[in-house]
Design a protein that fits this description.
With 167 residues, this protein is of the alpha+beta class. Helix content is 27%, strand content 38%.
């Protein structure tokens, strides 16, 4: 190697901010590193007043009409959305709640709803969030499509913006 090349800084490509990967016929995993401590990120996922400020992608033209969250094992959540003049409710039950670390909930609005697991891992004041959805079958995941998962790219960006105001 010549001396000039050895002294030049090596720039690694910037990692994608949010990744959405289909891990198997039944699984989708969404990941993102947030520049905030786990306690703040967890609060944004578990406090209704914060959650409703970031969860709905602005570009979709949807409105979150109500957000009820009883974040404890056995507690339930219910989200009601309005879109193009109609309403839809999403609801389920929290199966695991480990503060600042892990949430697991069911999606009960359909018999084919996935189980969602979100983990929060903090290192050096930043939090790695991994959202894992496990569908009951390949057909259920195929029916859900990639649109909802891809909307999470925008949604996680909105969470990032909210966290800046909380820090």
């Amino acid at each position: 190697m010549n001396a000039r090349k050895m002294s030049e800084p090596t720039l690694a490509p910037a990692p994608k901010r949010t990744t959405v990967e289909r891990k198997s016929d039944r699984e989708v995993v969404v990941t993102r590193l947030f520049n905030a401590p786990a306690r703040l990120v967890f609060q944004a996922w578990t406090q209704a007043d914060l959650f409703q400020r970031w969860w709905v992608p602005k570009s979709m033209g949807m409105t979150l009409l109500s957000c009820e969250m009883d974040v404890r094992v056995g507690g339930q959540y219910r989200l009601v959305f309005s879109y193009q003049g109609s309403e839809a409710a999403f609801f389920g039950t929290y199966q695991e709640v480990t503060p600042n670390s892990r949430l697991v909930w069911t999606n009960e609005e359909s018999p084919d709803g996935p189980i969602t697991t979100v983990t929060f891992e903090e290192k050096d004041g930043k939090t790695w969030v991994v959202m894992h959805e496990l569908h009951p079958s390949k057909e259920a995941l195929d029916a859900a499509g990639t649109g909802a998962s891809e909307a999470l790219v925008e949604t996680f960006g909105q969470l990032d913006e909210l966290l800046l105001t909380l820090s």
